[in-house]
Write a structure and sequence with these properties.
With about 130 residues, the protein is mostly helical. The chain has two domains: about 60 residues, no CATH class; about 50 residues, no CATH class. Helix 1 runs antiparallel to helix 3, helix 1 packs across helix 4 and helix 4 crosses helix 5.
């Protein structure tokens, strides 16, 4: 486990990482109390950039863990929201005569797009499709 850190980790990046993790709801789910404390302490003691290679490796591991948790949460939403909506769109498009629409049911990019659209809809305009 002797890998090189590819960039200098800054205090601002740590703060942003914590804020994003809290907003995405993965801060408490993905990290142990010790890991959360390590990040909080690092934010308090680091003035500008993380100079310790040991601390940088620890923080990179925590960052990777948070990224994985956030991505797996979104993937779950794509499976639960995006693909079912894509199937409904395929039914509609095929009803209009679009023969190639059947490929949309397996298109991850399309399912992600539909998930993001559904997540960003204002509450007043929501209707089940």
């Amino acid at each position: 486990m002797n890998h090189v850190i590819d960039h200098v980790l800054s205090r601002d990046e740590l703060v942003l990482m914590r804020v994003k993790a809290l907003r995405r709801g993965v801060w408490f789910k993905a990290l142990s109390a010790v890991e959360r404390s390590m990040v909080t302490l690092a934010i308090r003691v680091v003035e500008k950039d993380v100079k310790s290679s040991l601390l940088a490796r620890l923080m990179e591991g925590i960052i990777d863990k948070l990224k994985e948790a956030a991505e797996s949460g979104f993937l779950h939403m794509v499976l639960e929201i995006g693909f079912p909506v894509a199937r409904k769109f395929v039914e509609i498009a095929q009803g209009w005569g679009n023969k190639s629409a059947s490929r949309w049911t397996d298109d991850l990019g399309f399912a992600r797009f539909l998930t993001i659209l559904r997540m960003n809809r204002p509450e007043a305009g929501r209707r089940d499709i």
